[in-house]
Every structure is written in structure tokens, then in C-alpha cells.
Amino acid sequence: MITTLTFDLDDTLWSTHEVIGRAEQILFDYLRTHCPAFVEQHSVQSFAKMRQGLIAMDPARAHNLRRLRRDALAIEFQRLGQPNADALADQASQIFQTARQQVNFWPGVLEALAELATHYQLIAITNGTTDILASQAGEYFSGAFRADQFTRGKPDPEMFQAAMAAHDFTPAQAVHVGDHWDQDILAAKALGLATAWISTQPAPGPEADWHLSSVRELPDALAHH
User: Fold this and answer.
1) pTM of this prediction?
2) Are residues 168 and 107 both part of a single domain?
3) pLDDT at residue 35 above 90?
């Protein structure tokens, strides 16, 4: 019997490109005033490339995107001779994170989550940095697990195992819902969870128990299971 639905967030409940794009613009607008030299030397793309370079040098950074951004800002501020580089990095990364939290759920998703929450406990398991409990959907979720709170992100099983221990469910009682084939579908299936792939693309394999174009289709799919 299914008691629990675990959800990826980015590109499952909203468009990550839209959310990140808006947050990047807000960050660069802030830095245009507080560190003009950074904006003169960096575009969104070049700053992203710099962060990827930090991951290449230290792959352990990859799971904590919030810390990665903050450290990348501090490194660049120091290089540019910016006074109080660490403090400005803390402030700028918080500006970004506040904007990152302002997500726009895809049409019908909030209504679907409200319906699902009347039948199942909903748990977020995400490699991103959005706190779902502080969002419009927060009231529907019983718990949330973010990669920056752990030593590894998906597809490592650590967050899934922590969720099962904290919220008292077994793999046989859960469906994991996500858009990323390796990090969501294959990772959850390897642990014994059923899976619902949210994508308009053809499935790369047979591991998804459901293939849906939107979370709004999930209540019907589960009802006919």
C-alpha cells in the first residue's frame, strides 16, 4: 500500500530555468551597486563557468550549491580587492537565495499537491536549494531533505534513507516523483521505490512505473493504480 510520495522539486514542480534566471538577474542588479567590478568582469554564464571550475577542482563541492555560490562570490570579491569580501559574499548569496525561493508552480501543480496530501504524506528530496516548507506548497509537505544538508546529493541514497527513517515508510510504501532520469528514477528504483517520471520526452528505459507530462496528472494515475 502506498503511503508516501517523495518529490524532486526543480523542473518537477516548476521551471528551474525561470526561477534561476530571475534570481541571477536580482543578484547581478545587487552587485551592480555593491561590487561594480564583478559585474564588469562577469556575465551569468562566466560566473557559472567559474563555479563549474571549482567543482572540477573539488568534486565534493557539487552537492552544496548554496555554499558553492557563496564561496565563488567570496573568491571573486577577494580577487577584485573588494573590502569585506566575506561579508559581502554572505549578503549577496542570501539575496540570491531569497529570490531563488520565489518559485512559480506550473499550472495545476498546487491543486494536485493539495489533493495528494489528503491521501499520502508528501516529502521533498531535492538537490536544489529551495525550501519547499517555506513555499506556497509548504502546508502539503510533511518533510523536506536538501542536498546541502547532507554530505552527498542524489543519486546517492543518503537523502532517501534519511527520509524513510524520519518519516517511517519503507520503499514498498513509496513513489518517488521526479524529472531527472538518473538522479530520480534510477536512484529511487535502485532502492525499491516505485517511480513517476515527469517529462514530455520518451523514457530512456523501463524503470519508471508512471510516465506523466505533469504532476497534475498524478492524482488520477495513482487513483487508477
Assistant:
1) 0.93
2) yes
3) yes
